[in-house]
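User: Reviewer 2 asked us to show a designed sequence for the structure in our supplementary figure. I'm pasting the structure tokens here. Could you produce the per-position amino acids so we can include them in the response letter?
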């Protein structure tokens, strides 16, 4: 025994049990992630994940070297503000790690980071609530069945969603548990303002939705702390004494305000930019019960309902908080108003809460059983003493608590593993699983992860997960050569879900900017809500594809399977798209007949999965990035940003007779003003000739032959664009930039806005304030003659 280090000897049975529970969750999760593939030097694919790679690499290669976390990404949708409406933390971690390990490995590790942190943070949540063992370990064990939850596959949190591309959500969800726990501790101790604020800000930096859930959780917990003490809501002496209401309110206010200040650099531009964000128009699900109460989870949900009852009977602070928050998530799913938040995105919080409640109830049962056994043992000993069977010295001295904590944590881990492993291994008949409410059939998570992590390139020996890397590489190389020969520019490619089988994801060609060092852009992209150009892209996609995705709801798409290639090519000219890439015979035939394009290359034929494909590359004629207008745009005074602007311009977009007069949101006094888009006036002007166009990542410069007449710049409008040598820029149809040159040399740069400037300033003030505070505390601790008690009292 003496040879064992003292620190190890001090480890309690409860801690060992918790380590076992967390290790069990991680072991099963890592097994399903295929470590050999996770560390293989292949580029991640599968669902949206296979295209997230492009922006993560752009952050590493272009934004970070310029000291930026947000910026202009020219690669998708004719350009859009990247990480302004989406979240940067996960990709930032991948970018930073890629300075040490290969980017391909760093990116894959980052995508699973949130899933691996979830059991650790769930355990931390219980510890920060100061729950008695084995409850924190039971919370950690309860995350395993949630990670493998099959009831939803793209809404966030579980491994299905993570592999589909919601890895930022998974990281944020884990951080949300930590942030809530820190606030719970702070409400009882009054300390930890800085770390609580940092954790909550990190949650927002990872994803908005778990941050909103964390804010709701903190709100519910604050209300519980402010309830009258006579209600007796508590979890026993381990939690410490409830603080005065003034202390609770003060802590929550200080930590929340500091968190908002730390997040201001992103939050203020996000709020200010909402008029230029997009609502995809997804309709809330109206059939609620099958989503909230699926057959696969009947046992768990019934246990969660029992946990709700037990929590209120026991007046448990944690139990009441958790079950209340879970019920609120279910109500939010049911009554979520029809707006930009699709109610399916609330489901992960319902299921996570239910699984955690089940884990909590399991731990409560173990503690209750241990207490009963202890009382029973004590009673039997007393009876034996009275009967002179035992002496006072034989009284039990070791309470059952530590043993119960160890056994409870081990049991919780085993229960979690037994719930997850049988469906994956088919070790138990499907009928038996179905009878007890567990998903029957093999769990597909290991298949999904293998498909993703073998990557675009594939890994030898994983034949079931192979993709046609030869074909994909040939298409990319054809586009790269076109960029060298015919110049860099945007490209539009024919969409088809069959590309998922061929390349790993139907979004594979979104990586054209990645493979060509931003020379060839892709009109198709992710982050749909981040660009107001998105509707016109999807209308184009439907015109130029036999099997379009029609991903944005509510648009007047043509009949699927009936592409109108000629109209689609005219639309490409309006957006300044240089290349069109097609493979379907019907689309290729129409393109070959069109005078608007010239075929410049082909690659193929390739035979894969029984299908033979030849790719045709066309150069779009008369599609310059900058062009002088021959008529003045009309300022429509009744139009504002948002839905009204989009609806008017969709009609304009689909009516070629209206294209002579662009609609404008604002402009100089010389432009005609009209009250309605239906009353535009055609005012002809002699167009300026545009020469020497130079386009960078976030800048465009050119020369004009004459000043005072409008010039349209075919890149997406956003208020952070600024111009030198011209008036503007102004927003014109459908979502482009227009300027009125005051000099023959004009330059546009992607700069800042007042919201951006103020947000960054507020965050820097908060950061410097934290550094100053921590430095002052460190200095005060080193002051000679001041006792530790005085320092603690001062803090």
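Assistant: Here is a per-position design you can include in the supplement:
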């Amino acid at each position: 025994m003496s040879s064992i280090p003292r620190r190890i000897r001090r480890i309690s049975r409860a801690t060992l049990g918790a380590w076992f529970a967390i290790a069990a969750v991680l072991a099963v999760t890592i097994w399903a992630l295929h470590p050999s593939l996770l560390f293989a030097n292949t580029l991640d694919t599968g669902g949206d994940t296979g295209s997230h790679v492009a922006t993560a690499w752009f952050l590493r290669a272009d934004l970070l070297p310029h000291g930026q976390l947000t910026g202009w990404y020219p690669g998708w949708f004719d350009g859009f503000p990247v990480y302004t409406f989406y979240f940067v933390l996960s990709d930032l971690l991948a970018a930073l790690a890629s300075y040490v390990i290969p980017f391909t490995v760093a990116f894959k590790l980052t995508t699973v980071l949130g899933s691996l942190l979830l059991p650790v943070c769930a355990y931390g949540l219980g510890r920060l609530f100061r729950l008695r063992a084995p409850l924190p370990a039971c919370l950690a064990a309860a995350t395993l069945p949630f990670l493998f939850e099959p009831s939803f596959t793209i809404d966030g949190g579980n491994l299905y969603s993570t592999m589909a591309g919601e890895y930022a959500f998974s990281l944020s969800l884990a951080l949300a548990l930590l942030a809530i726990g820190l606030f719970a501790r702070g409400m009882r101790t009054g300390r930890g303002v800085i770390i609580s604020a940092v954790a909550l800000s990190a949650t927002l930096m990872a994803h908005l939705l778990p941050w909103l859930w964390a804010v709701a959780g903190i709100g519910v917990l604050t209300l519980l702390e402010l309830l009258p003490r006579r209600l007796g809501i508590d979890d026993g002496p381990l939690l410490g004494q409830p603080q005065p209401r003034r202390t609770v309110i003060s802590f929550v206010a200080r930590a929340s305000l500091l968190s908002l200040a730390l997040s201001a650099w992103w939050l203020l531009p996000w709020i200010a930019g909402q008029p230029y964000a997009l609502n995809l128009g997804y309709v809330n699900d109206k059939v609620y019960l099958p989503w909230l109460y699926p057959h696969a989870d009947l046992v768990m949900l019934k246990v969660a309902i029992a946990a709700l009852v037990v929590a209120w009977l026991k007046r448990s602070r944690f139990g009441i908080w958790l079950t209340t928050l879970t019920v609120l998530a279910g109500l939010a799913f049911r009554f979520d108003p029809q707006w930009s938040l699709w109610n399916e995105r609330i489901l992960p919080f319902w299921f996570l809460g239910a699984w955690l409640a089940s884990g909590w109830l399991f731990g409560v049962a173990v503690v209750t059983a241990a207490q009963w056994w202890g009382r029973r043992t004590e009673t039997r000993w007393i009876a034996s003493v009275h009967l002179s069977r035992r002496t006072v010295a034989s009284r039990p001295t070791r309470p059952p608590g530590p043993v119960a904590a160890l056994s409870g944590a081990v049991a919780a881990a085993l229960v979690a593993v037994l719930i997850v492993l049988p469906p994956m291994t088919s070790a138990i008949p499907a009928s038996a699983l179905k009878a007890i409410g567990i998903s029957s059939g093999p769990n597909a998570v290991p298949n999904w992860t293998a498909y993703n992590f073998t990557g675009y390139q594939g890994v030898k020996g994983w034949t079931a997960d192979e993709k046609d890397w030869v074909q994909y590489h040939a298409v990319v190389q054809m586009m790269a050569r076109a960029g060298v020969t015919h110049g860099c520019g945007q490209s539009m490619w024919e969409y088809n879900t069959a590309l998922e089988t061929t390349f790993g994801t139907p979004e594979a060609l979104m990586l054209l900017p990645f493979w060509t060092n931003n020379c060839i852009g892709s009109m198709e992209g992710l982050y749909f809500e981040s660009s107001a150009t998105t509707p016109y892209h999807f209308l184009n996609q439907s015109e130029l594809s036999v099997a379009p995705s029609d991903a944005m709801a509510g648009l007047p798409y043509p009949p699927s399977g009936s592409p109108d290639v000629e109209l689609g090519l005219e639309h490409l000219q309006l957006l300044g798209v240089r290349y069109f890439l097609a493979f379907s015979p019907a689309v290729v035939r129409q393109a070959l007949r069109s005078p608007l394009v010239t075929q410049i290359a082909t690659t193929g034929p390739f035979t894969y999965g029984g299908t033979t494909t030849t790719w045709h590359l066309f150069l779009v004629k008369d599609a310059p990035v900058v062009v002088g207008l021959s008529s003045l745009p009309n300022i429509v005074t009744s139009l504002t940003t948002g839905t009204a602007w989009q609806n008017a311009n969709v009609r304009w977009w689909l009516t070629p007779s209206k294209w002579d007069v662009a609609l404008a949101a604002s402009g100089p006094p010389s432009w005609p003003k009209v009250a309605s888009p239906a009353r535009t006036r055609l005012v002809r002007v002699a167009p300026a000739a545009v020469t020497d166009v130079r386009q960078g990542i976030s800048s465009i410069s050119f020369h004009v032959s004459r000043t005072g007449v409008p010039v349209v710049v075919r890149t997406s409008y956003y208020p952070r664009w600024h111009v030198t040598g011209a008036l503007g820029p102004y927003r014109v149809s459908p979502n482009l930039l227009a300027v009125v040159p005051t000099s023959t040399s004009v330059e546009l740069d992607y700069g800042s806005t007042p919201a951006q400037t103020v947000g960054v300033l507020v965050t820097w003030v908060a950061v410097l304030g934290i550094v100053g505070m921590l430095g002052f505390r460190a200095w005060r601790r080193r002051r000679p003659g001041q006792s530790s008690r005085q320092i603690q009292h001062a803090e």
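For the response letter, you might also mention the following. The chain is about 50% helix and 10% strand. The chain has a mean pLDDT of 88.
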